Amino acid sequence: MDIFISILSLIGFVLLTASTGLFVAIEFALTGLERSTIEAEVAQRGDKRSKAVKRDHQNLSFVLSGAQLGITVTTLATGYLAEPILDKFFTPLLELLGVPESATSTIALVLALFVATLLSMVFGELVPKNLAITNPMDTARFVVGPVNAFNTVFKGFIKMLNFSANWTVCRLGIEPADELASARSTQELTALVRNSAEQGGLERTTALVLDRSLKFGDVTAEELMTPRSTVETLHDDDTVLDLIALAIETGHSRFPVIRGDLDDTIGVVHYKDAFAVEASQRGSVLLRDLARPIPVVPESLDGDSVLNAVRSAGSQVILVADEYGGTAGLITIEDVVEEILGEVYDEHDDAEAERDFQRFGTSWSVSGLVRMDELSEKVGYIAPEGPYETLGGLVMAKLGRIPAPGDELILPQSDNPFRAEFESGYDGRWMAKVTVMEDRRVDTVILSPISDEEAAAFEKSAREAAN
Question: Which residue numbers delimit the CNNM transmembrane domain (predicted)?
Fold first, then answer.
């Protein structure tokens, strides 16, 4: 009879451990499922189990409370049942090993507690948890039936526990939620894209476009714009012939029409406007009569709003105003597209000449207009915080004057420990040499990697020359 009871107790121990695993599995499976995944499963199969998973996911607070109750009850029952029966198995074994009778009970009890806890933890918690994380939908479909049966039996008690928990949470100033939010932040989506690319789920080019698209909302009009100093303009008293000549010279299609300077822009003209004027009159028709209004946005406007403004503008060009009311630059639809897709060239562009980054050996020829975030992504150099947005601005700030062709300097180091992936594969010190100036603007800079010893020697000789 004792053997029969012992066997029944062992079977009960196994069943209770498996029951604990059911509640652990439903807990991790439901919290790991996305709403879209569940909707797709219901649409594909449409069976009772899929619908039950959907219902439980929408009533998550109640189901998780039931799971916690089930885990607590089965764990306590497992300990209560397992310890005595395991103690009976260990006691004769210890006697055979010659353990003194006075110590046998204590050692057997400790061993029983250890084995019961170990088995319950491994097979009742860790194994079902890993299964649920690895395959949440199939796991949820498998366990949802018995878990719902338990929740139905103890529905009243679970609701009471859930109400008590929600009341406490409300007192802490937090609104309880019955369903997991399916929305994801930009940072979470960016991490998903990067992980998918690293594991081969997305092609590199696709991942890059998605990553730029997700970050686009954080970009400002100031970062997107073509700076004022590089904008090609026409005057209000210029003629259609001047428009045609400038279009041929620059390869651009749209030009702001100004009265004096960009701060007094009266509109924008397109080279197609020239074809609306008879050839005999193109030397006499003034551009002020053809210019269309051009929208103006603040330089702090976010990328999404900038895109809407550019798309709604009839000319697909908008001006960017600085905080003092002056014109900081302009944005075209091409600027917006290039922020997401990278450099875009048409048949009128010289791709080599207009490329912001050109690599030769270990050095780089970089446009002075590139932003600091672009520089860090491409080259690997991260600048310290300062009153500059571009490489040219950094060079001016470091020199303390308007640079001249041939000026050399060691770029300052940043205390930021972050190092993103970059093409150069080098994140040490960099020497910058100004090679081309456009009036007072830094047009081209050569960046060359140097060692710490070379940087120290250069800075020492520069100080000596200054003295």
Answer: 2-208
